[in-house]
Amino acid sequence: MIVGSRRSRQLTDVLTYAVVAFFLIFAIGPLVWLLLTSVKLESDIVTSEGVRYWPSAITFEHYRAIWAQTDFPTLFKNSAVTSSVTIVLCMVSGTFAAYAFSRERFQGRHTLLLGLLVVRMFPAVMMIIPLFIIMRSLGLLDSSAGLAIAYTSFLLPIFIWLLKGFFDNLPDDLEDAARIDGCTRLGALGRIVLPLVRNGLLATTVFVAINAWNEFLFALMLTTSAGSRTWPVGLQLMIGEFQLPWGMLSAGGILSIIPVVILFAIVQRSMVHGLTAGAVKG
Amino acid sequence: MTTWDRSSGQSEADRFALAIDRVNPLSWLGRLSESRGWAWFLLLPTMVLLALIVVYPTIYGIALSFQDVRLLRPNAGGFVGLRHYQDMLDDPIFWLSLKNTVVWVVLACLLELGLGLASAMALDRALPGLKVATVLILLPWFLPKVVAGNMWALMLDSRLGVLNDILVRLGFLDQYKAWFADPSTALITAVVVESWHSFPFFTLLLIAALRGIPEEMHQAAAVDGATTVQRFWHITLPMLKVVIVAAVVLRVIGLVNSPDLLLILTSGGPGHATMVLSLYAFETAYRGFDFGYAGALAVVMLLLLMVFAWAYVRVSGVMARQ
After folding, report:
1. What range does the domain containing A86 cover?
2. Contact A121/B306, CB-based, under 8 Å?
3. In this prediction, does ipTM exceed 0.95?
4. Tell me: the pLDDT tens digits for A11-68?
5. Is B55 on the interface with A (CB under 8 A)?
6. How far apart are CA B72 and CA B291, in angstroms?
7. Which of B:216-235 have CB within 8 Å of A?
8. For residues B263 and B281, what is the distance between their CA atoms, to the nearest angstrom?
9. Superfamily for domain range B84-321
């Protein structure tokens, strides 16, 4: 997009790399600092004379401490269960809905799609309060299943929109070809369409999983005991109540973002593609 | 199933296959998929689920805002009409939260848009290494707010914060500063943290939008003698307009509705310097258990957002082009 003489082109190249370098430091710098803090000795973190940048020795003591001395393993397990149930709920109902919105032309299609967008406008508190009251009367309060159901209320619409974009990318005559070969519509969906859209389905699922894993506000309100509390709530409560030392806090932070970073690294290409599909057509 | 295998001359094997078909649930579903209501069968699970966990709670929530519902006072109950909304008019914290919400949303949105635009324009160029850089720069958006908030709290700590140290060394500060304890800097510092977390959302959408601008437009403009700055104003920005408008609407909704980061960083303090509407509503429900008033605050937020979205899209004239 930059047009001009060779000299000005070289100049813009240098400028581009300078801007990118700034953003790399801005985006990743804090994470590097978190990682450094998590492997520093306590005496390197809390010093008498200013900030010590490079650790004098590397220790994994903070990781051992947060894993063995707190209920971090339980918090992790609870988060994993909640995220898994959310994924299952979204996949089982959302896959068919996304397919219908993408491939079928029925009355009310636009209204319903718009409705899914409007759900995003609802303040979290507006959903949390009634869900709290309803779940308390159903005995779902403070359970992983209840929390997963609450997550589904805002993640299912996103799941459907994202996955619909991936279905939209498939050629129109795919099902027709399958049906000429004797498949039912269900057969065409199961044998032809779903296998073709599996990367998109994976990226969409990972996006929902990351959001469920990270969620804080609903979990804070809807869980009250260690039995179902997720790690963001648990970590925040430890910081507030027990004045968690910075080293342990950093170790906990690094541990909890490892699954996110790995999942994002695996599916980033299709995920970026899916998230921007609407923008390109826009 | 198709009909031609049910013609008159059925063999024994065909009839057997048909009998199996009748009891096989998959084949029953297969026949269902040929009916006219197929789309609605596909939508049924989602519709039932959303009716139960979105539509019903929403109506319930709006109804709550006209009632006196306090968890700790079970006998409170009862319809109070518009009383919560009247109380809001006389509530100084409500007005302060509203003002803070406007500051919070406007500043964060502008900063994120600026960062997103600058990063997207740089990353859009076809130079070696930028693909990997893009992935790394997008990463913050996928990270949990609990980690993001506490990580920045660590870096800004008034005793051992590395950013304080850097700013002192560079001469911008005389001594370490407690950024979140000072009412004059707390909100703006939180805006920076929020922007760090969410600017990649703009980067992501704007890179995609930049790829959609035909190369020829820039070349033609360059031939006509347009400078880089002129091309940015007259080609790039207008072409990005639709995406920017959509991204801003989505971000404003997100910024107004989710108090997570402020709850983690400041809980609305010091005083009420960082209290925004979403946080005020959440605290009213979570700590005060005053569900009726919290519900009313949420309804007001939703109304403000709807008015904003309508007016903003109207004024920016995006819909008119479609």
Report:
1. 70-281
2. yes
3. no
4. 889 999 999 999 999 999 999 999 999 999 988 888 877 788 888 889 999 999 999 9
5. no
6. 10
7. 218-219, 222, 228
8. 12
9. MetI-like (1.10.3720.10)
